Structures are given as C-alpha cells and as structure tokens.
Amino acid sequence: MEQNAKLPNIVGEGGLFGFSGMDGETNSASGFVATWGSDFSLLFHTPIRRRLSVKLEAEAEVVYATGDACRIAAPSGPFTATYAAWHTLVGRLPEGAGLQLQYEDGTDSDELPDGLRVTRDAKEGDSVVLRISGERFAVCFGSTIAEAADRASAGIGIAADVDSILRRRLRIFDEAPALPDAGHQRLLGKCISVMKVNTLSPEGGMKQMWSTPDRVPHRHMWLWDTVFHSLAMNDVSPDISWQCLKTMLDTQKEDGMIAHQISVGGRLSVITQPPVLAWGVWENYRKQEAVDKLAYALPILENYLEWDMRNRDVNGNGLLEWHIEGNVNCRSGESGMDNSSRFDEALTLDAVDFSTFMALEMDYVAQMAVELGLKEKAAYWSERARELGSRIVSELWDERDGFFYDKHMDGKFSRVKAVSGFLPLLLKELPAARTECLVGLLRDPEHFGTAYPVPSLAVSDPLWGTDMWRGPTWINLNYLIIKGLRLQGREEEADRLTDRSIGLVDKYYRQYGVTFEYYDAKDERPPVACDRKGPVNERYDIRVKVDSIRDYHWTAALTACMLRQKYGV
C-alpha cells in the first residue's frame, strides 16, 4: 500500500502540530506547540501566543497532515513543513506563497537584520523568529532573540533536506496495518498521529517518556488517561508504553497514594483517579512478557490498592467512594467524570465504577503474582477480587430498575442512570440475567440506545444534555463496555457498539479533521457545539473557554484499538 494512503489528509481547526518525544527531546514548558487555524495558519501556544499565517493558492489541497508533518499541493508546487527539533519548524514554500509571523492579536513581528522577523515576550523573555531564504523557511523558539535567530539560521540549512526529515517523521505509519476500508485506513493514520504528537520525552518531574491527554490545553499527565493511551501504544511500541506507565507508577507517595495528575514541573495533585494501572501493566506484559517489569510494578500496585481501601471506604462496607469537591463544575474530578449528575448532591456515595475498577485491579494483581510464582499473594488478591465483585453484584444492583446504581450512605440508591452502571459487565461474577437487563437498556432508545451510544447519562433523565459527563458519549467508556460485553459472551452487541463508536469518531474526523474529547450521543449537535462546564463558546479559543477538546489522546488511542480489533490486525 502506498504510504500516503495510510496518512491523515485533513487539516482541522484546533488540530495539534508539534514535535514528538518519539523523535527526540521535547520541551513542554516552552509551550512551543501549535494548533491549526481554520485556514492554513498555525497558532503557537507560548505564554504570549504567536500566529504563522500561510498564504497558498485557492486550489491548494492537503496531501497529508499529521501531528508533526504536512504536505499541501498547490499548482505552483508543494508546501511542506515539519519539525527538525522541538524548537525548530522547517519547510519549503511554493512560488508565490507567503508566510507572516504575528502576535495573536494581529500585531506584526519586528524586523531584524538579514530579513528575520521576531516576536518577543517581554515578560517571559522568549522569542520566536521567522527566517525565509528563497523557497526555504524556519520558525524557531529561543529563550533569547539571539538563540532563536541562531536556530532559524541553522534551520534554513536543515530545510534543504526537509524531504529526508519528513520521511523520518512518517516512518511510524509504515508499520501501520493495511485495512480494507480506505476511510478507516485514514482514520487509523489520524489516530496514530494524535498518539504520536501527545507522547513526550523525559522532562521535569517525568523521568521516562510520558503521555498527555492533549498538548493543548491540558499539557500535563493524568492517571487513567495514561493507561488508555498505553493500550494503543502497545501496538506501536510496547517499550514506550511501559515507560509511560512507569512514569505514573513512579509518582507514588510514601503512603501508597498515586495522584491523578502530575504537572510538567513535578507537582502532584491531592486526589487520585480510577485505579486502572494494573490493567495497563498487565496488557503491556502480554505484549512484552517482561517478568522484571511485573516484579517492579507489583509492590507499587499493591500499596496503591491498600491506600484506596484505607482512604476511600469511609463506611467500612468494602465498597469504594470517590472524593467529592465543592466545585459545582467538578464535583468529583477524582472519578474522572468531573461534572456527572451522579454528584450533583455533593454527597459521598458507594460508587459502582470505583468499586468495579478496584475488583478488576485486584484480579490483575493476582494474575501478576501468579506469573511471579507468588502463590499466597495471588490467592489473597484473587479472593479479595471475588469478594468485592460479589458485593457489587449483590449490593449495588436495583432489582426494580434492572440497573447498577451508586448508593447513599443511608443505603438508598441514587437512581441516577449513568454510564457507570454498565461497568459491572466487566465482572466475572455477573449473573447472565443481569447481563440481559443491561443489554436491554443499552438497546432501549428511551434510555441508552441513542444514535451514537453510550450516553454518559440516560436520555430519560431530565438533566441529560451535551455537557461533558452529563449526557455525551465518551469513547473510553464505550471501550470498557465493549470489553465487558465480550467477557459476558455478547459478541454481537460488542461488535455493534464497536462499529458505532468507530463510525462516530470517523464522521466528525472527516468533517472537522480532529478527534474530539466527547460527542453528542443523540447526534443533534456536532462536537464543536457541545457544552463543556457551561455553554459552548461561539468562537473557538481555548484561552477564553475550553470546549470539547480536539485531538484528544484517548479518543484516538482507543479508536485505534477498536480498528485493529475489528479487522483482526
């Protein structure tokens, strides 16, 4: 298959364009990563943002556009651009094309000798310089004007060999499997592109490679996001996948806690997140079979599970409760479902998702112990997993509604029909009759059987909407539900949900050129019109208001997983 057929070929507003840690040193602290504008412009997200406007002929057509390389065909010749290093963007211009470096507000750059253009941040001291020499150009970041100018001068020389750099940047796509559907092939390429651009080199508090949900605006590292990213990275580079997992494991505090987020500078948050690290480590082990990595991870994971049980079971009944916050837009950031209607009352709940994740983690830890020949440890965690799974099935199931709910501390069900109620499909202890009830609700258009399931809140709930976890469909939860359906032997339903999930991501990739954070389950609004912790901003600008994030990593990663599983590659 020709390589170009494997490459994404849509430039979408908000799409990421930056240097990847898979190719060398990155520098997140600089903010020198760009997003595409609605035209062929690039907005660099330094503390004071700069815009590089690219003027091409009207007939220009995108040949490919990945997260770090692009080629746009024009009648007078191609426009090419790629990163030679984290601080240096180089390329070639066709005859008659124009480049203009400005501040975001439209103020023009200043002219330096030799035709260089510079934008300088007076507060931070950093500079971005544009140099054009014939058909070649370089855009470079520096901590001083001199450093940026020197890099730009060197970049002009590097640009002479831009085609060689492009080949190196695109090498990752050579290993991508060939799919029989041309559209899905492009989508897989887009997913790999998003994965690559959101993978970074060691920096600050990160001692190995690491991954972020999105270079803009999140920038930092999150616990359960890292695991979802790793599942797809296992198919690209199991070693990089392990490094990212280890970076998160290594953030463990002395008491066993693993924080939900670590900043580039090494600051840890004070809450945790869904415990899924053992799952990530186990899936990585299945790819590498490196027993030493299991031996490294096991005590960390055990200590983390013990911390959760000590600190997130206030009523001592064995079921876990998320930390609840005072922020009305984020009652439970710890749950990962920040603003879910589950938490509107700001009350502590025995949480069906937290408890299910814990039971699964206990089982994965038991499997690791088996691999390491630790029979007593394996038996201990296996029994803990069985006990917790049985407790979830018996205590969080509402027979009247045929659904799993969170439970208040007084023993009453919350009765908020949220997507979390499907996660017990992942439990081996789930009776077949209850699987049948859950599948029925997944199919029911009055509850979860929407145009593009699975809504994060049942459409029957009067609070359903398009605001994050208050109604939209999330690919990570779909992936977990698909996994649960297969465990319960419901292959037809799993295949159907896989196809709908791929179709949803593909539909809006073709329309907007990006993978989104979440989607309208009813498909009445495009992702760009969905709310996010308040009404959507009319003009796309993440520094005014963050809406459904673009080139979102776990959407891309798990879509890549589903595409590989669908085609058996």
Which structural class is indicated by helix and strand composition? alpha+beta
Sum up the overall morphology in one term.
globular
Q: Uncertain segments of ≥5 residues (pLDDT<50)?
A: none
β-sheet strand percentage: 5-15%
Number of helices: 14
Main sheet makeup: 8 strands, antiparallel
The total of beta strands comes to 21
Tell me the span between the first and last alpha carbons.
15 Å
- Walk across the major sheet and give the strand order: 5-6-7-8-13-12-11-10
- Integer-rounded radius of gyration: 24 Å
Mean pLDDT: 97
- Which percent range fits the helix content? 25-40%
Pfam families: MGH1-like_GH
GO biological process, one term: oligosaccharide metabolic process
Domain Mannosylglycerate hydrolase MGH1-like glycoside hydrolase: 220-525
GO molecular function: Glc3Man9GlcNAc2 oligosaccharide glucosidase activity
